[in-house]
Design goal:
The chain has a single domain, classed as Heme Oxygenase, Chain A (Up-down Bundle). By secondary structure, the protein is an all-alpha fold. Helix 1 runs parallel beside helix 8. It starts with 13 loop residues before the first helix and ends with a helix. It is built from ten helices and no strands.
Length: 230
């Protein structure tokens, strides 16, 4: 008999990982829909106090976003300089987004000092600690899974939530700029995310870490929303 050389195991390509991440996101979206705050928004019981609490809660996570991306970039080795550069550009593009949340808050009549002085809720504390923990790993490629969850939420739900809040509360356009901006622009970020995936795949171990990081990030993000209360 002729010996047949064993083929090396095929790594997970971008389409494989995207399919698995889509399942994670669908479960994430379903969990979010059941949180008290989002149920109030989608069932027409959303109040101005709810919206201000929502903006205040998001500000903490958004402020940290550029910081953990910068830390992640600093821990990427020389073999992956293109990914490092892309993460750094992404961090720069978003590092002032929390100012939009502050401006929206003020446009609703809320004091600037109030949103700036708000503390992280339990979910935000857990999410922030997780993100910085992952960003501190050598070559923290798993954080691409976290970016999928956060950027995907912006693309799929931000505009819907922003318009629902605006209609329910009769808000001016100046009070929903953060949600509308991300709803209109995060599709481009998802395309960038897919390009970044291609820089580290196929690699089965990396693929598993990306999906696992997405799963944990999704659960902690839901906890953050669950803990938002006016």
């Amino acid at each position: 008999m002729t010996a047949v050389a064993a083929m090396p195991p095929r790594g997970d390509d971008v389409s494989d990982v995207l399919r698995r991440l889509a399942i994670v996101f669908a479960e994430f979206e379903a969990r979010l829909a059941q949180t008290p705050l989002i149920r109030k928004l989608t069932h027409g019981r959303f109040t101005l106090e709810d919206y201000r609490a929502f903006l205040s809660g998001l500000r903490q996570q958004v402020m940290d976003g550029a910081l953990w991306m910068s830390r992640a970039a600093s821990n990427i080795d020389e073999e992956h300089l293109e990914l490092r550069s892309r993460l750094m550009r992404h961090a720069v593009a978003e590092h002032r987004d929390f100012r939009l949340l502050e401006a929206d808050y003020v446009a609703t009549g809320g004091p600037l000092s109030e949103i700036q002085g708000a503390e992280k809720n339990i979910g935000s504390e857990a999410l922030s600690a997780w993100m910085f923990h992952e960003a501190s790993r050598p070559n923290p490629f798993g954080l691409l899974g976290a970016m999928w969850i956060i950027e995907g939420l912006g693309q799929i739900k931000a505009l819907e939530w922003g318009r629902a809040a605006q209609q329910r509360l009769e808000l001016a356009d100046e009070a929903v700029r953060f949600l509308v901006y991300h709803g209109e622009n995060d599709a481009a970020h998802i395309a960038e995310f897919e390009a970044m995936l291609g820089l580290v795949l196929p690699d089965t171990a990396i693929a598993r870490r990306i999906v696992r990081t997405a799963e944990v990030t999704a659960r902690l993000y839901v906890l953050q929303i669950e803990e938002i209360a006016p």
